[in-house]
């Protein structure tokens, strides 16, 4: 069962943000957007996902897409094309 750890209401932005923790997984939800983040910071990308959806769910804005990266040979690297993940 999903247990709610805490809830925060956004002052500005696209709506109410909700945070859940289940084991090592953090679920961010904001309106119709949601994203699951593992304890290692990894996001499991599903078909139809886009970075602005993750940004909306986690930061209450569509514009923070450059804060995401992908694992490369030498650690986390910037995403070259934020429109293709």
What key attributes describe this structure?
85 residues; mainly beta; 4-stranded antiparallel β-sheet; two-stranded antiparallel sheet; 1 helix; 11% helix; 36% strand; globular; disordered N terminus
State which percent range the strand residues make up. Answer: 35-45%
Percent of residues in helices comes to 10-25%
Structural class: mainly beta
Give the number of DSSP strands: 6
Mean pLDDT: 77
Over all CA atoms, what is the radius of gyration?
Answer: 13 Å
Largest sheet: 4 strands, antiparallel
Count of separate DSSP helical elements = 1
Gap from first CA to last CA: 30 Å
Order of helices and strands: EEEEHEE
Q: Within the largest sheet, what's the order of strands?
A: 1-2-3-4
Give unreliable regions as ranges.
1-14
Give the CA-based shape: globular
- Give the total of domains: 1
Descriptive notes:
By secondary structure, the protein is mainly β. The protein has one domain. Helices cover 11% and strands 36% of the residues. The strands form 2 sheets. Strands 1-2-3-4 form a 4-stranded antiparallel β-sheet, covered by helices on one side. A two-stranded antiparallel ribbon has the order 5-6. Strand 5 and strand 6 form a beta hairpin. It is globular and about 30 Å long.
Concise summary:
The chain is mainly beta and 85 residues long. Helices cover 11% and strands 36% of the residues. It starts with a strand and ends in a 7-residue tail after the last strand.
């Amino acid at each position: 069962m999903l247990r709610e750890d805490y809830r925060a209401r956004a002052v500005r932005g696209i709506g109410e943000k909700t945070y859940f923790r289940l084991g090592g997984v953090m679920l961010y939800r904001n309106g119709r957007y949601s994203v699951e983040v593992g304890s290692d910071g990894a996001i499991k990308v599903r078909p139809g996902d886009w970075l602005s959806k993750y940004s909306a769910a986690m930061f209450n804005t569509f514009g923070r897409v450059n804060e995401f990266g992908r694992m490369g040979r030498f650690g986390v690297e910037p995403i070259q094309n934020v429109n293709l993940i």
